Amino acid sequence: MQPATAALLLTLALAGEAWAAHRNQYLRSFPVHSVNDPCYDEDRPRRCMPDFVNAAFGVPIDASSTCGQGKPARFCDLRDPSDGQPPGGSSGGRSGALESTCEICDETDATKRYPALALTDVHNSNNVTCWRSEPRSGTVDAGPDNVTLTLSLGKKFELTYVSLMFCPHAIRPDSMAIYKSADYGKNWLPFQFYSSQCRKLYGRPTKATISPSNEQEARCVDHNRYSVDGVQGSRIAFSTLDGRPSGRDFDNSVILQDWVTATDIRVIFHRLQPASGGGGGGGGSASHAKSQSTELLGGGKFGGLPKKASDFLLPGGGGRDNPAAVGSGVFTYALSDFAVGGRCKCNGHASRCVKGADGKLECDCKHNTAGRDCERCKPFYFDRPWGRGTMRDANECKARSVFPPQDTAEDLFSPRPQTVANLAAVPSSNPSSSDDMILHHHSA
Ligand SMILES: [Ca+2]
Q1: What is the Å distance from ligand 1's center to 101 Cα?
Q2: How much is the pLDDT for 307?
Q3: Comma-separated ranges of CATH 2.60.120.260 domains in the chain
Q4: Is the pLDDT of residue 148 over 90?
Q5: How many Å apart are CA 133 and CA 71, to the nearest integer?
Q6: Dist. CA 63 → ligand 1 center (Å)
Q7: Å from CA of 170 to ligand 1 middle
């Protein structure tokens, strides 16, 4: 076969596909999108995105440690006996302060189990369900606890926050880290740290300022609440864009778009209680922690009483009224709710995510885009480079125009005998032939 024949074949093959695309464009001039399609304003493409959701809701979380799994265990909480009574007023006259109450966890008993499923069920403040770790020592001296919770979303999401709700009466951990993966768990990057000793435990300054040059770095925050929380429990919420300068111009910040993108979230609890006052925890830091927590708690709910959780937890730390709490190995990490707020990531080209043929979540891509995240153009829609849909420009992918503009509708819909199928039987020639201008053109 002559090289010219091969070139003709290729031309027609491409023209056939382009013609189909062109016809679609022609059809576009009639309303083809549902009136309510958020990705089109009548027929003009516009930026669209899936709804904001709690992406963790109903998704099972993998916990490295669960209380009562394998065998029953004894754990303790610290309670304020006045919980449930009107706040204030009476605190000055109290003498007993916090009381430790201990219970048994046992996964074989429905009334005593604390499974990871409780982390992502319906959060009803009248009927709080909790996950608990196995009882920990939770001290620095004993080494980090490394109790891990892993949430796999199964798809890229753009996350606005990660929220952890602690159980009523549970101790809020002193040191913990939130990691994220954007590649289904192959690589993990720090998202946020919490600690009373940021520098010592995580090698970062406390609450470092974020500048435009380090917007993709995790910060460490001393969340500064070594308190025992009351009936409602307390919440730690990490806002992914908070304090990051380009957050206001998110559409144009590729760095922040990557920063908020995650397929998996992992929380690692490293330490339950602050550094000990006397032992190996480092006296300077401990007194610093004490002064902060005193400031926080002094005169507050537990005014006039031991000021921080370590007072209860450590031997000789002041837990005189709480013999059950002295020593270690009875306190648990306990969370009632693990939520991540965000949107299924579709790069501005889809308004919803659906289960694909393989059962995995994927974007319902519009604007002639394709891929699980609408991260590329559909085949033969390469007239302009792919771009994320923004408020200013939907950046739809467009078919490569082959026909001159004077083509009429009749031309477009008249039968074309030189279809790909007609010519498919012609054997191809060496594509590296120098006569094959079309191929060279398209590979350029
Ligand atoms: Ca729950």
Answers
A1: 21
A2: 34
A3: 53-82+98-275+329-343
A4: yes
A5: 13
A6: 14
A7: 14
| 113 CA distance to ligand 1 middle (Å) | 12
Q: Is 302 helix (H, G, I), strand (E, B) or coil?
A: coil
DSSP string, 110-163: TTS---GGGGSS---TTS---EEPPPB---STT----EEEEEEEEEEEEEEEEE
Residue 82 Cα, ligand 1 centroid: separation in angstroms? 24
Percentage with pLDDT > 70 across the chain: 62
Which two three-digit tokens encode residue 420?
Answer: 């790909």
pTM, 2 dp: 0.71
- Quickly count: other Cβ atoms within 10 Å of residue 140's Cβ: 22
- Give me 34's structure tokens: 């549902």
Q: Domain 53-82+98-275+329-343 adopts which CATH fold?
A: Jelly Rolls (2.60.120)
Triad 86, 83, 175: Cα angle to 5°: 125
Residue 55 Cα to ligand 1 midpoint, Å, equals: 15
Q: Which fold has domain 35-50+349-402?
A: Laminin (2.10.25)
Cα of 306 to ligand 1 centre, how many Å? 30
Average pLDDT over residues 343-351: 98
